[in-house]
## 1
Amino acid sequence: MTDRLPNRDLTVPELRAVVRGLASAPERWRRHVRHDPTRRHYEELVRDAHLSVWLINWTDAQDTGFHDHDISAGAVAVVQGRVVEERLRVGAQPGRAEFGPGQAFDFAAEQIHRVVHVGTEPAVTLHAYSPPLWRMGAYLVEPDGALRRFSVSYAEELRPLDEPLAA
Amino acid sequence: MRVDIHQHLFTEPVLAALGRRDEPPRLVRRDRSWALELAGEPESPVAPPGQALERRMRELHADRIDRAVLCPSVPLGVEGLAPDEARVILAAYLQGAAELPERFATWGSIPSRDPDPAAVRELLRRGAVGLAVPARVLVDPTTRAAFGPALEALERADAPLMVHPGPADAGPDAPPWWPAMTSYVAQMNAAWHAFVAFARPEHPRLRVVFALLAGGAPFHLERLAARGGPAERAHDPLLFYDTSSYGPRAIDTAARFVGVDQLVHGSDRPLAEPPAWSDDDAFAHALRVRNPERLLGAPA
């Protein structure tokens, strides 16, 4: 999949093509599908100088919280189940879109969003980031509307404390 | 289990073996204390083993480390001695490590002039987590070739390799920090490039950790690519980097190049102090718990 990619950071349309291509090649990721009601389960499928690709398993309304990706743009393809993407807005309800199998969405580096599992069926999504994820901003919206940003390593999002070792 | 994969500690059997030597590396009496006399580095004082162990236990508690993996003091140059001389000290090293509390594990090393694969199997049988080699072993084409069977034995045993700098070639007038900032960085950078270019194709399943962020080799990946080198081989889930003597900025930069999964916590105590990691931090958890398990192949 990555052999034919350009030797530079990828554009958003190229990232969309990566996740769509991967979505149609389940032999590349099917063995990593594993759902756990206590945590999202992640697997990094690709990491090189310009691209990181993750498979994320979701269930039971698991939620990323609002976050940004520092300088990385990204694209997400849903291959099973449903997720909602919310875009943070000041003084307004978040923009909201729901995605199901066969659908994809993308985001530029400057966008702040959250992704939440919805529905009864566990979800499986494929995420491509370029340049590879490094630091992220995690946002806390206080009851009075004050917004606080925490600079975190991507480990905070994709290598959480309670994640078990891959079998 | 929170693991520090890189510490040093002199035990009584090693000091006794060094004290019996007539030439460097050796232990010498200085007034009312002891010092290490080395060939290429300034002399350094040595604490009595009992005191050093007590102090280390307190530090492990303060660092919140459950298991410290000790590494032979490669900068002493023991591995490079005539094989018979080296074996005496390396055997004393393993004996000393085995007598320590359960909170310690250890890397083992073998004479660089006689890198016998049977010696690697023996180290592992005696409880070492893997093999530590001086960085120069990988850089020099002759020793690299000679170590081939030893590395193969390690790979077959599913045990990891630790690449450690030293000995240095600073003069006796150099300040104590000089080797750490010059020879060691250069040796590690060269060893990483040598491993990636020459040894990795021969040992595709060997798990390897480079001390001190491989002398900053990951920071040079763009340059490696620009010069036509095999930069893509840096993206290797079996290549690890320990953080010894580095702080948040360099460690974060290494994560940018090779990813969080390849970094492991190695403090290099007593020569340096580790950053104050928080148990609640996922990055620290990856470096101290998850990644050492992947490197060592099992709980240390």
Note: The longest helix of chain A spans residues 12-23.
## 2
Amino acid sequence: MDVQGLQMTQNIPAPGVFKRNPPIAGEAEAIEAAKNGDAEAFSKLYALHKRRVYTLCLRMLGNVSEAEDMTQEAFLHLFRKIGSFRGESAFSTWLHRLTVNLVLMHLRKKGLNLVSLEETINPSEDDAPKRDFGARDLQLTGSVDRVALERAVASLPPGYRMVFVLHDVEGFEHNEIATMLECSTGNSKSQLHKARLKLRELLRQPEQSTQPAGFNEVAV
Amino acid sequence: MTDSNFPDFDTMTPADFEKYLPDFFANGDGHVSTDPRLQTFLKNNPDCAALVRDLEAIADQARSLFEPTEPSDAVWTGIQDKLKLLGPEDDDLAIPQTV
């Protein structure tokens, strides 16, 4: 597995992740045991973190098959690299960042120039959010249905989806996203705004138009 | 970005507002609708206020998308298979068999 370019840094906190990840009973012992080759301990770490890693992959990739492949890769990478975990941040934070980096590397290999900003700054005519305020829409204002939003997120262009998921779902700050995606903080802000505008537009359309091919696989 | 980087809040046009909206969201707690500097503008521009409310609703609801989802059993099976292929020469760690 090519791990070039992965940066397993532990010094950049992800506030949203810390908030969502209180210490897990028995995790510290399992980590130390897994470092020493304890197979059952590794199994326990998988059981503890599989949902979180898989959900992250699913949100970033919007595709069940790819998300499962990347979950597998993340844990294989963890298996190889757990000895380098020094405990300077929460294990869940470290694993979260490892997974994000793997997914980003995967997308780059696929040719998605992440913040492929070509794609997201200059999306195709169909993909770009409309630049009008539109009339007030009481259907959307005040509440957004979670399932409808999930569908809309899954149908976003990949670049928009990536920034939206990293910021609004995963809780990364713009400066962290800029580092991960190798873009400017201003670009991250701009992409997030365009992603939200596109989501608003999608949520105001009839339901079928927000349903991408194979979406049923993604709905959770 | 400080206030000096923004247009005059009292004379700002909807086009100005649209231009600076990403920065309005990025500053503070992300809730533009409660920004005291923008209250007069939003009151006088209901379409802009509606846009803000919609975008805030989307951002707020996004947090609920984090509910964990279970991967299929095939993922763990695949991990086990790949680890077997690694062999002891690749890694000294034992192969986990169960979850």
Note: Chain B touches chain A through 47 residues (CB under 8 Å).
